[in-house]
Specification:
The complex is a heterodimer of chains A (about 110) and B (about 110). Chain A is mostly beta strands and about 110 residues long. Chain A is built from no helices and eleven strands. Chain B is mainly beta and about 110 residues long. The chains are: A mainly beta (about 110), B mainly beta (about 110).
Chain lengths: ~110, ~110
Amino acid sequence: GIQVEQSPPDLILQEGANSTLRCNFSDSVNNLQWFHQNPWGQLINLFYIPSGTKQNGRLSATTVATERYSLLYISSSQTTDSGVYFCAVRQTGGTSYGKLTFGQGTILTVHP
Amino acid sequence: GAVVSQHPSRVICKSGTSVKIECRSLDFQATTMFWYRQFPKQSLMLMATSNEGSKATYEQGVEKDKFLINHASLTLSTLTVTSAHPEDSSFYICSASNYNEQFFGPGTRLTVL
């Protein structure tokens, strides 16, 4: 099956700093999503981004499908950004309702 | 974004009992729902794909007789953990697909004593 690798595994920042999270995948995908898992376990959809670039406030994401990676940018980080960030992909060739494969996540801690 | 609810949010049960978890898509119809399990400090692992009106598709290594899935309508899927044991203690999360994206419920924390 498809492999998804996220880096770095852990990231510690001071409030106000910027950061970049990376997601590499081993095969063609037709869906890529970024999630933030809050301390209560809820996964919050950040981006649906199988290709291209999107921005939402302080967050933006870029997926270069031909090179099999995606980047999540967090600018001016806040303590509420802390949590685990997951990248998940759906391998091309499956049905449109096909399963997602998750990376291992990046644990982000933002200190005041 | 779409809203997915899950009930209960937390359950504690004795070993040998069965526990049912409900997953509902509140504002869209979901032909397909998914059930995941997450152990502490680990990623989400897909257990099964739940298809409305047909049998669920289980991932390799997941016992279908232990984790019963019913997707009776386009807005409701249930996961029943039968004869639960302490090793079944985990965080169970469902998701529903609207064709492109998957949206996740808040999860159910199961503790089996």
